[in-house]
């Protein structure tokens, strides 16, 4: 099944505005759909396209890059003759798939773009690790975009529920709750999405069969692939990366979800593990969320490097990772979670899926945490901080604190203290909860399925 992806529109904009003056690199986690997107774009938007997969490219093609890349006319003549392609200038796309497997091809992009006859897409995972860039000059003619797992909108589109997706956005824009029946349907589908996740193969397995077990089998294969990548590419960080990766579910299941390094070793320090966390983030396996100690526009200016949450990039993978006690996770376990019959810390899943939606919308992830050892009255914990335009400040950006609630009964003490402390820096407050939309002016309570609207 081919899914409609929001990233397709970004590629259309690139094609129209750049007109061959840059190549586009599609970065993303393994199995996130990069090659499928590139192939679909070439098929639909060009009269000819060629995909060269460097995970299985013939040795003679590699040799062609090594020996002829400084003579681009000859290089292209040989390349196109080998693949028996009769291209049309300015209407042909050449795709370098899995370009991290042969960095020389990425370096050649500079000369190919200067030639100007064709458009070029690249796809890659683990694209920035030292092994894949140490011997090449990264071309300035290359721009990049991130491809995330399917967000909730894309999941709804895959289920032929685009009208519902549109109604969700209309409800958010007008701050008017949807009718009860549609709210319940959206909430149920969001819980399905939370369990299945957004990896295209897992979504395809679920949509075709309406079977959580079929999706779980796919996700287990992806997790195995990730573990193999760690063993193969993390080099001298393998043990540390593995230790972090295996502890993510247990760390997120805590009431306070900050990653505690002493869970790995009593003497563990951030400086000893910072490269391992960077590797996981760079491989797009995790979404890092850092504490911003003085919330203001420019959240990264006051970032506490050693205080962070480590979310998984896909919540469906987190579910499978967390419930991997046996060789398979049964449909019954998934359905018990779906209908809230299993006693688990659901905050782990809801906070992770919200982080996933924010990342898909292009947000960097920040939270706020203040602990006062003398009195709990001054302690605060805000799940996420977003910079958003604020109508009461003439549309200028203010900091919006976002609290994520997995149950219908909850308190708002931290939100109240946060506004009292930071006053004019604060814009609209948001609470994402399992209930309907409620507009209270400065504070808006949104159903969880609207996280991607922020």
Summarize the structure in words:
- There is one protein chain.
- This protein has helices spanning 7-18, 34-45, 59-68, 72-82, 103-115, 130-133, 152-158, 162-174, 180-196, 200-209, 212-233, 238-252, 270-282, 315-322, 331-338, 347-360, 413-422; strands at 23-28, 48-53, 92-97, 119-124, 142-147, 286-292, 303-312, 366-370, 380-382, 384-389, 397-404, 429-433, 438-439, 443-447.
- The protein folds into two domains: 7-147, P-loop containing nucleotide triphosphate hydrolases (Rossmann fold), CATH 3.40.50.300; 153-453, no CATH class.
- The radius of gyration is 23 Å and the shape is globular.
- It is of the alpha/beta class and 454 residues long.
- Helix 3 packs antiparallel against helix 4 (72-82), helix 12 (238-252) crosses helix 13 (270-282) and helix 12 crosses helix 14 (315-322).
Summarize the structure.
With 454 residues, the protein is an alpha/beta fold. 44% of the residues lie in helices and 18% in strands.
Give the SSE layout.
Blueprint (H helix, E strand, L loop, with lengths): L6 H12 L4 E6 L5 H12 L2 E6 L5 H10 L3 H11 L9 E6 L5 H13 L3 E6 L5 H4 L8 E6 L4 H7 L3 H13 L5 H17 L3 H10 L2 H22 L4 H15 L17 H13 L3 E7 L10 E10 L2 H8 L8 H8 L8 H14 L5 E5 L9 E3 L1 E6 L7 E8 L8 H10 L6 E5 L4 E2 L3 E5 L7
Parallel strand pairs: 1-4, 1-5, 2-3, 3-4, 6-8, 11-12, 12-14
Antiparallel strand pairs: 6-7, 8-9, 10-11, 13-14
Helix pairs in contact: 3-4, 9-14, 10-11, 11-14, 12-13, 12-14
